[in-house]
Structure formats: structure tokens, C-alpha cells
Model the fold of this input.
Amino acid sequence: MTSPRRSGAWALAALLAWLVGYPLLITVGEALGLGSGFTLEFFQTFAQRGGEWLALWRSLWISLASVILSALVGVPLGFFFERAEFPGRRLLGALVALPVALPPLVGVIAFLFLYGESGFVSRALMALFRLEDAPWSLGGPTAILLIHTYSMYVYFYLFTRAALARLDSSLLEASASLGAGGRRTFFRVVLPQLRPALAGASLLTFMTSLASFSAPYIFGGGYRVMTTQIVASKLNGDLEMARVETVMLAAMALVALAVMRLLDPGQDLGGTVRGIPPARRNFQRPLVRWGASILGYVLALVLLLPHLTLMLVSLVPVGTWTVEALPPVLALGNYGALFADPQRLQPMLNSAWMAAVATAGALALGLLSARASLRVKGRLGRLLESLIALPWAIPGTVFAVALATTFSVRAPQFGRFLLIGTPWILPLAYLLRNLPLTGRAAFSGLRQLNPALEEAAASLGAGPWRRFRKVVLPMVRPALAAGGVLAFITALGDFVTSIVLYTLDTRPISIEILASLRLQDTGLAAAYGVLLMTFSTVAFVVWGREKGV
Amino acid sequence: MQDSPFLVLDKIDKSFGELHVLANVELQVAEGEVLALLGPSGSGKTTALRLLGGFESPDRGKILVRGKDVTTLPVSRRRFGMVFQHYALFPHLSVGENVAFGLETQGWGKERTHHRVQEMLELVDLAGFEDRRLGQTSGGQQQRVALARALAPKPRLLLLDEPLSNLDPTLRERTRSQLRDAIDRIGITTILVTHEQEEAFHLGDRVAVLHQGRLQQVGTPEELYERPLNRFVATFVGRASVVPGLLGPTDERSGEGHREARICWAPGMKEIRWTGFLSAPLEPGTPIEIALRPESLCFAQPGGENVLPGRVLERRYRGPLTYYLVQVEGSPLHLEVLAPGAAARPGDSVGITLAEGGLAPRIFPQDPEDRAL
Done:
């Protein structure tokens, strides 16, 4: 290979290492007191505090429980919508996946409005049974697990469906011809084939849950998990402790990732020729057929209730809904206020430009790195790929604290600049958090690109730039668009990094939602939520179309 | 080749890591000639084509076009047209846009490009297909789009990588004729890679046989079939049975180069003597192999002079003539005989001898390594 190509790849690797790896190292260093000696004092303090261990333990068990609960909901749903045929299956099957498109904070407040103490369900029960007080209070681990399950079962659902769709019907036929009954075929043939998908969904759920911030922040109250503990320490001004907690959470994430890799090395089971997926079970008896259909509708309705609630609440003018079971007044005033009042419009504009800049940057960096990685191959190629993927394994809170630590100091000779308090820190944070999304999209697009196409272009006289513009870019555009859309909505609805890094001038939508909630302006919070939800849903549908989901 | 050669491959070596793919390959191609690189898979023929195209660079050796060294010239500046095995058509472009791609890189104007695209599509019998998407074309049509695209920028050399391997057999024959026709009309120097002898013979003016990274023989189809230089060429190009033996004296009746091969087919049996052609000078008594085409053998009365006794194992009817697979009695040797359909049935005891006036068998020195086969 030519050396300019390698030096370009090295330059990219250095840039990524500085942006992605360096802040984490700085954080570890400062937690160890580097710069003014070396000390384990902060870690000792951490070890001596029972509360810290408790938070760590809670993060762990809640994540494991989230995996189990999400699997219990998602896998049967996946089977139901992939293997059965009934009227409305396609539409309902798509609707069931929607909770994943809800930005975490929006999902949480939708749950609050629906199942919270003064939510719809609670009010309905109070009205129905003439209760004086709310029948429950939504909080603590139950609430966190409930919302985790609600938003994360989709991973299991989608992965199960995808794996079932890939299943070769001849495997089932072979099993039956060898005398295996339904149960045996399921456990010995179907389940092993689903294993990689289930392992993937478990990992995704576990990591998302470990990094989850919105649910424990809103519902946890005094019940602290690691992410909320970090933010609390930081807000209390205990920066040393926040750094130690950050390091501990990052370590936990990396250990979890390593353990998962060990348990499931992700071997490829697709070795044989890809066959035809088994035919869906078409229910013959009308009763069963319609029963399945009704079940499908009910499921979809239940799963979409939070979305509907959010829409309804967004139409309630502030102060008009007190004790009634249903809101007495519905109006579009909240939306009007959103656009008429520059103070309220600002967060949307902020979020929009920051997400756009971050996505463009993440797309460019992801594409360049993926192309460089696939061209130089070898160790350098793998290094680039790992650097691109690293932010995925690191919880958002950790990343935010690491960036806050690194870029709050002016020391250009050490690659540290003063970005905290400037409008650039949030777009940078969004960009880095989005890198795995755009990078993975670029990798998959480029890997699918037949190398003969570029060779053909070269043989027709096209130089490197023209090959890239005329052949590579158009071919990977769908994959990039999908990754970019996902990155954009993630940045648009981001809460976890924003709460650590925002400034008054760059406050994004999520922070404004939180502020509105604090002021009891639920209608306004819901209106922001609906806008985010609409964007996200549209983007998710676009993404799904590109992906062929 | 009376003119100085248009294209020269000069002592080309290429390895991928430990794997030696091409060793000391030397080849010359005249202007306007169609050369077929023929070989089994793994013989290095595709690598040779990719070196020519500039997609790989040789470890050693040079590639010259009209005496100019192009070994290190970038692909995009070689002006070689290439038709890829799976065509590598750009799926995001229409048929016309695919054909125009190379013209745009050369900066042809809009009008000229349009005319050239029309001309090329007409050449490959696809007039009116300009606006079609690739999804609306068949495999055979895509093959021709790929050809039109490669030819449009008026390349100096046309490279074809297994151009017909993606087509079904009936379509292949028709497309092959169209391909040869198009090449003839343009008169472009062409190198083509294939593993099918029929394709190489039909398309190539000359055929170069590659095996294990080495060039075995270069020649016209007649030369390769009638006068193979070694056992590999004899068996890979056309059908042939190979029988071991010892070299005998010169056969005076048959003329220069014709030597007796003494074949001792089974222990204790009387050896038989068949005459074949030997190109290398060798001492009598040297271990040899004799390659026999099915049509140079015929059935005879068992027990006659220089007749091998055997039993028919298999009969494969092929219209006017039939292939018989015969096991030589008391020996693991098999021979293939081409004879009329009624000559024998499976299980029959037969005698085999050389056909009168047939193609002379070829005698090669025995390769000690091949003995194991």
C-alpha cells in the first residue's frame, strides 16, 4: 500500500484517540490525582462509602433485570408478529417497535403522565373507585424497571424478528423428517439459531440500561444508581468523587462488555446456504384468527398509550386540569407559545443546529475513518474501528464528565482547550456520542460495496476523487442516511450529556422540558416532547425503510 | 508475429504472502490479436489479468505496451477497458449512464458522449436501452452493457475476466458469438481469461495455457490440441488418456520425431508397441508417458499384434460417435475410445489399438512427481 494512505489513517487514528480516548485517560488520571502527585485517596474514599457501592450494585442488578424483563416481553412479541399471520400484522408489527424511537427523557415523562401519581391511569382509578388518594406512587426501582422494559424490549423484539426471518425453513423440515416434534425442534434447532440475535439484544439492553439516566433521574428520587450518583456529585461540587464514580462506571461497562464477549464470541451460524424462511402460521379458524388480530391491536394500543398520553397532555393549557379524570380544556395554546415566544423557541433552534452540526461532523469523521480502516486493514484498521466504536461502550454520563474534565483547562501543549461554557462543547459531545452510529453505518455500507465497482471506475479513467464522488458515495448514501438520521434524532433528544455540559445560551430541548416540569408547566413539557417524538418517529420510519426493517 | 509486439509481459512474478501465484510469465501479444488465458481455477490466470489491468502490481517483471513500460501506471491512466466477471455495473446509474461513465472522465462533450453511447449500444445490440435501469435487464444484456461500457472510451486494450461465466449454457453460446463479432468489428487487441476450453478456442486467435502460475504453452487452438507440449496441456485441452511406458527406437515408417512407446500394461504380459511423437531428444529406455486422444484409438480383435485387451466399463452416447471407457485387463489403467455407437456394450471384452491415420499420440518424459498420480 502507498504510504500517504497509511499516514492519513494514522492521522485519523490520532485525531480519534485525542477526541475519544484522551478525555477518558485524563479523567482516570485526575481521579488518581495526577498533575499534583499520585494518590489513591479518592478511590479509598469511594470504597469506604456504603452509598457508592450501593449505587454500583443497583446499576448492575437493574441492568440485569432489565435484560430479563425486556427478553420476556420482546421475544414472545417477536415470535407472535413474525410467525403468525393475521389481519393488520404488518402495520401493528411496525407500531410495536416505536417505543425505541422515543427519546429516553420523552418516554419517561410520557410514562409519568400516564402511570404517575397524577397520571391518567391513577386518576381514572380514583374516579372509578372514588378514592381519596392516588392508588400508587410511581418511583424507585419498580418505576425504573418498568420504563426500561418498555423502551428496551424493542431490541429483543427486532432482533428476534430479524433472526426468525433469516431462519431456513429446510432446517425445520430436516428436524421434522428426523422425527423431532415441535418442542424438540424449537429447543434444538430454532433457539440455537436465535442465540446470536438474543446475545446481541442482551448486550444492547444491558449497556443501554447501565447508561440509562433519564428514568432513574426522574423516577429514582433518593434511589441513586451510578449515573445519577455521578451527576449528583458533580452538581454538589464534589468533582473528585464524580471522577472516581465516572471511572468506576466506565470500568463496569467495559468489564460487562468483555464478559459478554467471552460468553458469546459471536460465532457465525449462517455458514450454510441461506434458504427460504418458514411460512407464517396462517390461522384457519376465524375465532383464532380474529383473536390474534385483536390481541395484536390491544398490544399495540397498550404500547402506544404513552405516546397518546403525551399528545393529550400537550393540549392541556397550564393550570386548567386539577382533579378531573379527563382534562376539561383542550387547546393548541402550548404549541403556539412554543413558536411565538423567542425564549421557548430558542431551545429548539439550539437543539436543531447543534444536532445538525454534530451529525454532519460524525458522518464525515465516520466515513473517513471507515474508509481508511478498510483500506489499510491490519492492526491500524482495527484500531480505527475500535476507536469509532468506543463511545458506544461508554455511558453518556461518563463521556460528559470526561469531556467536562478535559476541556475545562487551557493547556494546548497537552491537547486541552477551554471548551466548557462555549457553544462548542455540546455539539462536540453529540458528535462523539454519535460516532458509533455513523461509523457503523459507514462500515456496513463500505463493506457491502463491491470492490470491482471502484476498479471498474478506475479502468474507465476515473481518478480517486471522482471514484469516491461518483461511485462510493452514491452507493453508501443509503447506509449513511440511515446512520445519519439515527444520529440526528439521538442528538436532538439528548439529555444525559446535555445536563452535564449545557450552558444557558445552548440549553437544548431536553433541559427545557425538565425546566417546564419543575415549573409544573406539564402542557409545555409535553408539547416539546411531542415535537421530539414526531421528529424521532419520522426519522425512525425513514431509517427503517432504508434498512428494510 | 512479424510486427514488434503490441503488448509484452516480461518475466512477471507475483506472490500473495507465501503463495506464488505467477512465476516467470512471458507473453507477447500482437496488435489486434485476441489471446485467451486458459487454466483451471487457481492457475493464476485472473491474477495475470489483474496485473495487466493495474489492479495488482507484479513483484518482478515488466508490462510493456508498444515498448512503453506501463507497470506502475495507475489504473485510471492505462486506458485499458475491462469487463469484470460479475460485470461491476454501477447499480445507481442507468444503462446509458454506465456506458457514458468513462467518456465523462475523459471530458467528452455532452453531444459526443450521447453519440458514442448510442453507437456502443448499437454495437452490442442494445439500441434503445439507454434509459433502462439495470434491474430491468437480463444477465445477457448486462454482459453486453459491460462490454459497451468498457469499449466506449476507445481503450487500447480490452480485458475480459470470465466474461460468459455468469450466463446459462444456451445463452452463453449465443453471447459468445456476439462478443467475438463485436471484437472483430472494432479490431481491438483483447486478452480474455477463461477456464473453459471451448470458450478459449472460439474466442481466442491464440490460447495461453496456465497451470500453477506457469505458462505451459501458447499457441493456436490447433497447435494446442494436436501438438501439446506436456502432459498437462494434453489432458487439460481436450480429452486424453495417459499411459506409462518406456521409450523405444525411432519408428522408421512414420518419419522424424516418431518413436516407439513400449507399453507393459500388466506384470508378466507381453508388452505392446505403439508409435507416438516425441519432441524432446531422449535416450531409448527412458520412462515416458504417452497421451492418447479418444479418436486416435479404435477397437480391434483382442489378442492381435499390439492390441491391448480390456473390458468396457461405461458407454456415453454423444450422437454420431460414442465415448467408451475401457479398463485394461489386469491393470488399473483406463482408456477412453471414440467409436461408432454400435461398437460395444458395457461388460464386453474388447481389444484397443491405434486408429489408422489418426492423430499421432504424444510422448512426454515421465515426470517423477506425476508418477504418484
In short: Residues 110 and 306 of chain A are 5 Å apart (CA to CA).
